[in-house]
Amino acid sequence: MPIRQLSETMINQIAAGEVIERPASVVKELVENALDAGASRVEVVTAGGGLNLIRVTDDGSGIPEQELSLAIARHCTSKLVEDINDIRSLGFRGEALPSIGSVSRLSIRSRTALGDSAAEIGIEGGRVLPVRPAAANRGTTVEVRDLFFATPARLKFMKGERAESSATSDVVKRIAIAFPAVRFTLAGSDRSTLELPATDDSPEGSLRRVAQVMGAEFPDNSIAIDAMREGVHLTGHVSIPSFSRANALQQYAYVNGRPVRDKLIAGAIRGAFADVLPRDRHAVTVLFLSLDPAIVDVNVHPAKADVRFRDPGLVRGLIVGAIRQAMADAGIRSATTGAAGMMAAFRPGAAPYNHGGPANGHRSYEAAFHASGSGFDPSRSPQRPLDMQFEGFERAGARQGGFGEPGQAAFDTGALASADARAGQSEAAETLLGTVLGAARAQVHENYIVAQTRDSLVIVDQHAAHERLVYEALKNALHSRPVPSQMLLLPEIIDLPEEDAERLAMHSETLARFGLGIERFGPGAVAVRETPSMLGETDVQQLVRDLADEIADNDTVETLKERLDKIAATMACHGSVRSGRLLKAEEMNALLRQMEATPGSGTCNHGRPTYIELKLADIERLFGRR
Known about the structure:
Layout lengths: L7 H12 L3 H14 L4 E7 L5 E6 L9 H4 L24 H7 L2 E7 L6 E7 L2 E2 L3 E3 L4 E7 L6 H4 L5 H18 L4 E5 L5 E4 L6 H12 L7 E8 L2 E8 L4 E2 L5 E5 L2 E3 L2 H10 L9 E2 L1 E6 L5 E2 L10 E2 L2 H19 L5 H11 L19 H6 L22 H5 L20 H15 L5 E6 L3 E5 L3 E6 H18 L5 E11 L2 H9 L1 H6 L3 E4 L4 E8 L7 H15 L3 H18 L9 H13 L13 E5 H7 L4
Parallel strand pairs: 1-8, 13-16
Antiparallel strand pairs: 1-2, 2-7, 3-4, 3-7, 4-5, 4-6, 8-9, 10-11, 11-16, 12-15, 13-14, 17-18, 19-20, 20-21, 21-25, 22-24, 23-24
Helix pairs in contact: 1-4, 2-6, 6-7, 8-9, 14-18, 14-19, 15-17
């Protein structure tokens, strides 16, 4: 068959297959054009899930009449001059409008600020209609009818009206978060309307816009992020560990203001929350990356949802480090939703409230870890008292009415104490009430510590809390010095592609610090001479191949670190104070103080909350006092 030039209409329809996947893709392209035109108000109207009608109206700069024919021509744009590496707008390829017009009935009506009247141009299935006069206010209205009528095969792949409308709503919300000073309105054929009033570009205004999209409870359950590394600036908010979702749909990421769905960013978020969330839970995040356009490629795909960073390791390290540091600086916090669920459970006829994740079974690794010389002492019985290393509260805690050993008095009358001693105890008790978790008052069901602060009631799961404390201590011991390794009797030779072997050799020093000794063994193989003692009998071949894949994707060796941390988590579970253990008041207060001093202690190793706080105002509401 001879080679021939495709028609312009067919070329545009081929491009539409990449750019215009569904009605939400059309809305994305048109809203981005409106924002690039400087709009302060964007209105979107859809019908039939967007398949029957999409209308996007803005108050931007508008398109001059003489440029309307260029606006619908392929690869014509006002946003890119010469340098493809200097992209500072949302759109730049000049493909969206001709692609949309090739598969639908498209009309564009626009008027500039200096224009006396508006003009309109249309396209029907790739056939361009002449420009004609029209009546319109300043700005542009783009109307798309009968989407995919020219390519009926594509219609078979569309989902129901509700699913398409939901996808469109998600697109508008994602874009709106990055432009808080713009008012967005989305109206559908089901008469439902999404209105996002404009705020401002300040951090407070940006957070208000985030609350409009993600719910009013997010700001109270989030931590601010602000970090800079080698010219890459990261800002935004992430949820506290006890505030999570069952999927990752509420993870929003932006690169220079552009909404993206990047696997490197998603992987970095998972890595940052790996220690504090269970596998089936996901953090809620809004992250903005600002960097030189020359070191990020947004021209990977026509849909512009994927990006490539020149230094992916730098970006991943910045995200992981910034989130973990922010969580450590924020200290211990409980989600406000925990109190709401607790309140609901107290009401008559309420269903049982389940805040936590699934219980996980583990096998013990104490012996292997002890043999490695890590400093962990498996002989320490969970029945021994907790360490009390804090001064000033031990004796006061003994007078707080903790229910410890059987027969212990619930309250100390202080009949034999002097007036000065009683005054000192009262002062110390008042000090404890001012702490985050307060003073221990009781232990109920041999597992839950009830504590009191000045304005709330705190209930702590003693096993989950101590499990986190032991885990953090193990991790500190594990990563503060090289991990002990065991020499293999015979080196394990692993055949790999030459580029994978080279990457592993480049990270050999880091791997050695984690107890994995490797060296090059010819052009396409590595020899493993040592493995971490903690791993015991392990599949060395699979471990090395997994590391090679991760280095190729992210330029990190987190796989090995995660395996070691998982073993430490298992050991912490078996080495922590068990449910059913009676605690003395001093032990309960010691546990509370250690929790306050330990980052991430708001959740256990499996992601379950370690405590729930119920404000006094909520308790009074339960009893009708408010």
